[in-house]
Design a protein that fits this description.
- The longest helix has 11 residues, at about 15-25.
- The protein starts with 12 loop residues before the first helix and ends in a 7-residue tail after the last helix.
- Mean pLDDT is about 85; it is low at about 1-5.
- It contains three helices and six strands; from the N terminus they run H-E-E-E-H-E-E-E-H.
- Strands 3-2-1-5 form a four-stranded antiparallel sheet.
- About 30% of the residues lie in helices and about 20% in strands.
- It is an alpha+beta fold.
Length: about 90
């Protein structure tokens, strides 16, 4: 799969990798109307995709948080449902 390959829902491989990082507990998100995503402490290079993931309701902020601060990013139920069929079989 390449960066431009799309899954059936229309999300790029990069977007899915960002969702996987959130699912693995490796991501933080800023408390903002346009939340920025950080993975492993580093800012994502594709913040426009991070914004789309947040606005689509696939990742979310935990309750609370001071505007401008970084908090752990959470995968929504919709985000979990999107990743579930893409997970490798155990």
């Amino acid at each position: 799969m390449t960066e431009n390959t799309k899954d059936p829902e229309g999300w790029s491989a990069r977007a899915l990798a960002m969702l996987r990082a959130v699912a693995q507990g490796r991501a933080e998100i800023t408390v903002s109307l346009e939340p920025d995503l950080y993975v492993d402490g580093l800012p994502c290079s594709d913040q426009s995709t991070a914004h789309r993931l947040a606005h689509a309701g696939l990742i979310r902020l935990p309750d609370g948080g001071v505007p401008g601060s970084r908090v752990p990013a959470e995968l929504s139920e919709t985000g979990q449902d999107l990743l579930e069929p893409l997970a490798p079989a155990a």
